[in-house]
Specification:
The structure holds two protein chains of two kinds.
Chain A: H1 21-43, H2 46-68, H3 79-89, H4 97-112, H5 125-136, H6 138-142, E1 144-145, E2 158-159, H7 162-165, H8 171-176, H9 188-200, H10 207-227, H11 230-239, H12 243-250, H13 261-281, H14 288-306, H15 318-329
Antiparallel strand pairs in A: 1-2
Chain B: E1 9-10, E2 32-34, E3 40-44, E4 54-55, E5 62-63, E6 68-71, E7 80-81, E8 86-95, E9 101-109, H1 127-137, H2 149-153, E10 163-167, H3 177-184, H4 186-200, E11 204-210, H5 214-224, E12 234-239, H6 248-256, E13 271-275, H7 276-288, E14 294-300, E15 308-313, H8 318-324, E16 332-337, E17 344-346, E18 359-364, H9 381-385, H10 392-400, H11 404-410, H12 420-424, H13 431-448
Parallel strand pairs in B: 1-12, 2-15, 10-11, 10-13, 11-12, 14-18
Antiparallel strand pairs in B: 3-9, 4-6, 5-8, 6-7, 8-9, 14-15, 16-17, 16-18
The chains are: A mainly alpha, B alpha/beta.
């Protein structure tokens, strides 16, 4: 107590970094902006409208749900904004708005808040929302508008994604995003700019995106050797569908990915393998959402087995390992 | 990458994780100044890890500087000496900065700082002499932990202890007293280094400093390159400046590549780690016989008017030291003894300075960083920062669920409470507090069995 005023007392440390949940989420939003701009150019202003509606729905859903559950308000942490943007990026730009809104509500209310809110959900809310929409509205969710250059275009012509049709545009067009697809997934260049921003701001570590994309590349190359034209096949597989969007922005979701370094590798390799399996052998054209969701639910298990040994733990000798095994059996 | 001069070592094995804290070494250029003799000192009987001392004086006794006023017959303990000359006015319980109660001796100073007539330089010829002398000096680790130094030095000779690590890393922000020790008392460090090496039979001495202290570096390099070091066994090691380089376990790892196993001491992997100020003190004690009755500390922080490095008698009231530094320029919101990462926040200025306190920091409200606590988002930045490979967020969950099996698996007991996890946490979680709760839970469990 000094001059009658109480001092603040707390456990050490008394210095803290400047990073907060809010500014991390803000960084993610900033990292998504290049892809948003690209989608507006590629698919027209409706892409912006869908995103705006999706964000607004998520924020309102979160606000109302917290009120109903009598919990503190959490919309200022911006995580609902991120969910809204990501879900919008995962739907075609010509989807009816009410469909997006139901997806948002499912993501926020069921996946996120019913399990305890931020940090507690077992799968990525945006992916949960997308899977819900894929199952509920299969046709609208898989009829993608073809891109038409020019800012103000509304294009009603729809086509299948190159992954389904097997007809791939040129690599340049794919990098620029000039192909049919969900509104935020097509422009690879914009997504990579966002990735670099997240790395520079130290929001994510590169392990998951690079391992995920790397695994898909390796498996697809092997598959390509069987099918012929391995390199072209691999490049087409990497640049189409939602792989980059998923690997950079969805698989790296903190809550639903392992915190251990080894765990991150296992998680990302798993995502890659499932994506390849679904794409190569499944009846679905795309497998990114499903594979991430699958790996999401495995995270507690992965972490359980990849918890690092604490500093200085002596290496187990063979005899000790044996003894441990026998003890476990008994 | 900075160029590393010839003959200077780098870390054998680098420290994992860690955090980049701002250094704030504002007082680095300020020489240590003595404060005027305080009118009164209150000297607690527990200023070290181990058994507390019992007062050996009673109210009314006349004491002189350096006279023993508290001692214990336990080995892990260190005697306590009068830090001013004068009259004992009280012997009784006081409240310590950490909230516990402790016996203390209060001495009213006669202002003369008269030395006790019993003070004479000890004769140190063997290792036994040295251990005895260091015990009598009352020395405890001056870096902050307060472990009695003679216990560290009294290792069995057959244990294969070969390396002495001298810690000049001072990785806590703000504190610069070890840095000043290097610049101002380099001669003391030099003579102690070679004496410890010869008497205790170390094969190698590693003096470790962070690369943000070039001036101290030059001095330490001269010590390492001194011609008495005929076999070139004393080496300087440069460490990247990051927190917590200076932690004992980290020091051992950087210097030798060895890792101290959970629940063990550096001696178990053949190392002794000593703070540079403790080393310099040993040299002065052997020359003069004057025990540990004063120490240097940094007074800094945004609420202090004139930040300073001061030398104060042990037991001086913290308020008096702050007054000597011009008092507060802003209303203080947080007061800390020690560094901002591991220091103790205290409830007021009416506490005595202890042997192990190396700083007093006072922060105004805007710098007291009271981050709002929000929900954990499992970002894993705590695990990334942990130099001991722990996963703090999972420890918090396991503690809540009272899952002691998980706590043991994760290994929370090795946690040294360096605070890197909490520093990094974007959700502002008091993770060190959670680690302490987890450890308490495990201790409780162990006590039940």
């Amino acid at each position: 107590m000094i001059n009658g005023k109480m001092l603040h007392v707390s456990a050490s440390p008394h210095a803290r970094s400047r990073q907060t949940t809010q500014n991390i989420m803000l960084d993610v939003v900033i990292a998504l902006i290049p892809a948003l701009i690209a989608s507006a150019i590629i698919f027209g202003l409706r892409a912006l409208l869908v995103t705006a509606v999706s964000v607004a729905t998520c924020v309102v859903a979160e606000f109302v749900m917290r009120k109903i559950l009598k919990r503190n308000n959490t919309i200022q942490d911006l995580s609902a904004v991120v969910t809204g943007m990501l879900l919008a990026f995962n739907v075609p730009s010509n989807i009816p708005l009410w469909m997006v809104m139901t997806g948002d509500i499912f993501a926020i209310v069921i996946i996120k808040q019913c399990f305890g809110g931020i940090g507690q959900n077992f799968i990525n809310p945006a992916i949960g929302g997308r899977i819900f929409m894929l199952l509920s509205y299969s046709t609208p969710m898989t009829s993608w508008p073809t891109p038409k250059q020019g800012f103000m275009t509304f294009d009603a012509v729809t086509s299948a994604t190159p992954l389904a049709s097997g007809e791939f545009p040129s690599i340049t067009d794919m990098l620029l995003g000039l192909r049919g697809g969900s509104l935020g997934e097509t422009c690879i260049i914009a997504l990579v700019i966002g990735f670099i921003y997240l790395l520079v701001r130290k929001v994510i570590r590169p392990i998951i995106p690079l391992t995920y994309i790397g695994t898909v590349a390796v498996v697809m190359f092997i598959a390509g050797l069987v099918k012929g034209e391995a390199v072209t096949f691999t490049v087409n597989q990497l640049l189409s569908g939602g792989l980059f969007l998923g690997a950079i922005f969805m698989a790296t979701d903190y809550t639903t990915s392992p915190i251990t370094t080894k765990g991150k590798y296992i998680f990302a390799i798993g995502c890659g393998l499932f994506t390849c399996l679904i794409r190569l052998f499944g009846s679905l054209p795309e497998g990114v959402s499903y594979s991430i969701a699958l790996m999401n639910v495995l995270v507690p298990l992965i972490e359980r087995f990849t918890t690092p040994k604490p500093f200085g733990t002596p290496k187990e000798t063979k005899e000790e390992k044996k003894a441990k095994k026998e003890a476990a059996k008994a | 990458m900075k160029k590393i001069p010839n003959g200077v070592l780098t870390a054998v094995k680098k420290v994992r994780g860690g955090v980049a804290v701002e250094h704030h070494k504002n007082t680095a250029d300020l020489e240590v100044v003595r404060i005027p003799t305080p009118a009164k000192v209150t000297i607690p009987m527990a200023m070290h890890i181990g058994a507390p001392c019992e007062p050996t004086v009673k109210v009314g006794d006349e004491v002189a500087v350096g006279q023993v006023i508290g001692d214990s017959d336990k080995f892990v303990s260190a005697p306590i000496h009068a830090s001013v000359s004068g009259k004992v006015t009280a012997v009784g319980d006081i409240k310590m900065p950490n909230g516990t109660m402790c016996k203390a001796v209060t001495i009213e100073s006669d202002g003369e700082m008269r030395l006790w007539e019993g003070i004479k330089p000890p004769v140190v010829e063997t290792r036994e002499d040295l251990v005895k002398a260091v015990r009598e000096s009352g020395l405890v680790g001056l870096g902050g932990a307060g472990f009695p130094t003679h216990v560290k030095l009294n290792f069995p000779q057959d244990k294969g202890i070969d390396t002495l690590v001298i810690n000049a890393a001072e990785c806590e922000p703000y504190i610069t007293v070890d840095y000043r020790e290097c610049l101002d008392n380099s001669w003391d460090i030099l003579s102690a280094v070679y004496m410890l090496k010869d008497l205790l039979g170390f094969k190698k001495v590693v003096i470790a400093a962070e690369d943000n202290k070039p001036e101290a570096f030059k001095v330490l390099q001269r010590i390492a390159d001194h011609e008495v070091d005929v076999n070139d066994e004393v080496k300087l090691m440069v460490l990247e400046s990051k927190y917590p380089q200076g932690a004992e376990k980290m020091m051992v790892q950087s210097a030798t590549g060895r890792q101290v196993p959970p629940g063990k001491l550096p001696a178990d992997v053949g190392c002794v780690v000593m703070n540079v100020a403790s080393v310099a003190f040993i040299s002065r004690y052997i020359k003069t016989g004057k025990p540990l009755v004063s120490r240097s500390l940094t007074v800094d922080g945004s609420a202090i008017k004139e930040p300073k490095n001061v030398r104060v008698p042990i037991g001086t009231n913290i308020g008096e030291i702050i007054d000597f530094c011009g008092g507060f320029k802003e209303e203080p919101c947080k007061l800390i003894t020690g560094g901002p990462m591991m220091g103790l926040s205290i409830i007021g200025t009416d506490f005595p300075i202890l042997k192990q306190n190396n700083a007093i920091l006072a922060f105004a409200e805007k710098d007291a960083v009271i981050k709002k606590e929000t929900d954990c988002i499992r970002c894993g930045k705590c695990a990334e920062a942990c130099p001991l490979s722990l996963t703090p967020t999972n420890i918090v969950r396991a503690t809540k669920a009272k899952d002691t099996a998980a706590l043991n698996r994760i290994g929370v007991m090795v946690c040294m409470e360096c605070g890197s996890c909490a520093f990094n946490c974007p959700a502002g979680k008091p993770l060190v507090q959670h680690m302490r709760m987890a450890k308490a839970l495990l201790r409780e469990e162990a006590a039940k069995k």
